[in-house]
Amino acid sequence: MAGGKDNRGTWLVLGQFLCIAVLAVAGSWMLPWWAWALFSAGILLVLWAAVSLGANNLTVLPAPREGNTLSKRGIYARIRHPMYLSILLCGAALAVGAPTAMRWLTLAVLIAVLVVKIRHEEARLTRLHHEYPEVMKGVARLLPGLW
Prior knowledge:
This protein has one domain. The protein is built from five helices and no strands. Helix content is 60%, strand content 0%. α2 packs antiparallel against α3. The chain has 147 residues and is mainly α.
């Protein structure tokens, strides 16, 4: 991993995966059609992001891999963190499509974890690629037009 050991990043990833697991088991999977459409959009988005990012840049940790490059290909031309958006789309599909109090609470925690993870990842990218802030101007972090 570029930039050395990243304990905070590891904890953020563990928190993210714990939230995903809770969302998966904290209620029914009997979703209405529109929730399945939203969930499917999240799956398609993560696949598009993985292809756009390329194997050399792909990592679950919020720290860049050795020899990584900044990507503005594919979905990365519009969104800096499309994989995090895909997680939120799938989580929202479950929380809204088959709601439980635990799913709503977990979705809120997941949003907080991903916002912290985005800030952490962007700080690491900026340290490694000083041009990152300039290159990413005009590219939404998560939601085009909002953030």
